[in-house]
Amino acid sequence: MEKVIFEHQKEYGCKPDVITTAPGRFHLIGEHTWFFKDKTLSMAIDFPVYVAVSKREDQTLKFNFVQLDEKKRCSLSVIKFKKEDKWANALKAVIYSFLSEKFEFPGMNFTVYTDILPSAGFGITTAIKIAAAWALRELNHFRISDERLISIVEKANRQFLNSENRKADNFAAVYSKKNSVVVTDYSENSYKIIPFSFEDHTIILTDTGVPRVFTWNEESILQPENVLLLGELKNRKSNVFGGWTYEENSSEISEVFSVTTEEVKRRLVCTMHEHKCVLDAVSALEKKEFEPFARAVEKSHCNMRDLYDISCPEIDWLVKRVYGLDENPVDLRNPVNCGRITGKGFGRCTYSIIRNSDVDKFKEKLGEFERIFGFSPKCYIVKPSSGVKIL
Fold first, then answer.
1. What angle do CA 303, 305, 306 make, to 5 degrees?
2. Does the pTM exceed 0.90?
């Protein structure tokens, strides 16, 4: 707080009127299934993004990102997307969306302060937008609900940033609770908070430094005809979370997917498997059972590697080392640790949930990783965090 106030006052000559904070996040399972109205398991983490705001007496908007040492500006009357503005576009998008909803306010000074940069892919850009929306409501005393604020952010994504809305990103940034995870159900536009009760384990995010290589265009799988194909394989079940599962009969699955290519079929099957991984992980979390939770995470990484085709040898090597920390790694029916690919787009990051006693051993593996592959990984020990708040 003191640093945020100091930086704002240094840049603008006044203290902020409002300071908000929103958490970073990562997705554990299911982040590539949103288009098919499925479920995503996410965790908000203690990577806080601070947005400080003060009112101006003119119509100017000024933006300062402290860690990047970058400054941007524009006018309330002319808010345009500019590729070179990068992070500032997130703030402009939220302001633009408020204005399109006929809200009125003066010019403002913004300070963004976060130790984790957006390029890491840990939900920092979403956190900036959510924190900015909450700050604008507080600063101008707008009497609107949290749900309305989320819709304003969604409108900012669609109309200003021309990007898709992934509700799991927003729900994690807004509704998360300490020591919990969030499961987003896209079919119901709903969320559920589930305790994360594995205190004997440490959560580690690793940015491997491996460049992201896009080997295929994800838009190719996000087509209405594929939604219809998967719809044919849904079975209603009242005794499972969300009320449905996918068909498991291989003959039925092959018949439905016979109209598409093997490549598309493989990725649609991945979507079906991810659905089950989310259900299995949720069930294990609710029962406070680590082993079945870890098996769901392991299966999900295999889905990403073998079916969705977004992993790489470096990522796979690191995930394999996580399971190798077990004294009896041959028997993976009851894993004591788990890990998976995660991160922005096709990912260059992993998350690992490791016994406290294995943390130092894992860090040694990162040293091996650097010697073998030549990339310098950065790792962060994180904890599940609560959602956006006014400070």
1. 70
2. yes
